[in-house]
Amino acid sequence: MHAALITGKGEVELREFEAPTPGDGCAVVDVAFCGICGTDIHAFQSGNPYNPAICGHEWSGTVSAVASDVKRLSEGDRVVIGVPSACGSCGPCRSGLGSTCSRVLKVASGRDERAPGHGGFAPQISVGADRLVRTHDNLSDEEAAQVEPATVALHAVRKAGQRLGDIAVVQGAGPIGLVTLQWVKAAGAGEVIVVEPNDARRELALQLGATVAVTPDEVSEVLAERTRGIGADIVYECVGKPQTIQSAVDLARRGGNMCLIGLADSNAEISPHTWLIKEINVTSSLAYTHEEFDIAMGMVGDGRIQLDPMHSATTNLEGLADALTDLGSGQSDQTKVLVNPNWHS
Predict the structure, then answer these.
(1) pLDDT band for position 264 (cuts 50, 70, 90)
(2) Mean pLDDT, residues 16-25 taken together
(3) By C-alpha distance, which of 287, 249, 257 is closest to 189?
(4) How many domains does the chain have?
(5) What is the DSSP-derived secondary structure letter of residue 89?
(6) Is the pTM of this model over 0.90?
């Protein structure tokens, strides 16, 4: 079996692995689709790959084998990959802070004892069964492969302190920005202004419910008109570039909120004076909790959150490097690219 790994700057290798078998507490999943994440693009561009287990961490599939001690899953179950429930025994859990469980963080970063040697850019993978969530019946495999990033955005919006009627700005209309836009609408925002330089992505943002979609050069003027010069109640930073962190604070009103979702791969230069004078409230969001997967799938399944419009292309393992190059160029016509590891050129 071959799995694709990002091994250096601009490098993807197809490496051979033994077909997986389920160790204690694990299940083997036949992968249907795996999404390309912004972190995969960062790793490909920077030459600093993440742990192999999170190179391709947005996948859906079908359980094909389970360990004898696994009782909650069976062969044939359709599943999506997530994180386990809070362990209940680490320091944060014992302090009543299960949402910041240390074991969950370890699993999410591919550092736990069950972490596989590759991610979902492979036809099969063995993972801890406690990480797997049954796919809702009314989701396609393509939708299911986008549930993980949808849950990232759900977790962020739940944490951010948004109120009914707020004027919100979403910076970036990539996959995370577009699904954040939809959660922001579902959470009762009065208006949602999306900031995106790409014409096609601005149009898609409008289709998915943005009040207006503007370029970075236009946003200050448009926001001033809509808020009488006050600024946004809340700004969601979904670009993941160092320079957009300060611009998110610049767009917020005094006493407003900024939610950091995009993961920048280098340090950012900020203006502490601005942050202080504005009394900005900052939240940040790394991942999600186990139960939020069911929430996300439920709202995708009933149509309140749309994932299919973002899925713009499918490639195979052999085409992964070209897809990463295209998505990282800043000029791509694609939005969400899924990888089918069972399709060969």
Answers:
(1) confident
(2) 95
(3) 257
(4) 2
(5) S
(6) yes
Structure tokens at 251: 């767009």
The token duo for 330 is: 């800043």
In a domain, 12, yes or no: yes
Segment (H or E) for 6: strand 2-8
Task: List the structure tokens of 275.
Answer: 């942050």
Are 237 and 194 within 8 A, CB to CB?
A: no
pLDDT value, residue 110? 86
pLDDT digit string (tens) for 70-97? 999 999 999 999 999 999 999 999 999 9
**Which pairs from 18-22 meet CB under 8 Å and 24+ separation?**
19/124, 20/116, 20/124, 20/125, 20/126, 21/65, 21/126, 22/65, 22/66, 22/67, 22/70, 22/126, 22/129
Q: What pLDDT, on a 0 to 100 scale, did the predictor assign at position 2?
A: 95
What pLDDT is recorded for position 300?
97
What pLDDT is attached to residue 286? 86
Q: Quick one: 237 and 327 in the same domain?
A: no
Q: What is the DSSP string of 72-93?
A: S--TT-EEEE--PPP-SSSHHH
Domain of 53 in residue numbering reads as 2-146+307-339
Q: Say yes or no: 83 and 130 in one domain.
A: yes
Flag whether pLDDT at 345 surpasses 80.
no
Can you give the pLDDT at residue 88? 94
How far CA 154 is from CA of 184, 188, 241, in Å, comes to 9, 13, 21
Q: Which residue in 134, 177, 127, 126 sits closest to 156, CA to CA?
A: 177
Q: Which residues contact 329 (CB under 8 A, 6 or more apart)?
A: none
Residue that is written with structure tokens 């850019």 in the block = 121
Q: Is 222 found in the same domain as 91? A: no
Q: Are residues 241 and 212 in the same domain?
A: yes
Write the CATH number for 198. 3.40.50.720
Instruction: Using alpha carbons, select from 69, 71, 68, 77 the residue that is nearest to residue 29.
Output: 77
pLDDT above 90 as % of the chain: 88
Nearest residue to 201 via CA among 214, 189, 182: 214
Q: For residue 150, give both structure tokens.
A: 């949808």
Of 257-266, 319-328, 334-343, least confident by mean pLDDT is 257-266
Say if 298 falls within a structural domain.
no
As given in the structure block, the two tokens for residue 51 are 């742990």
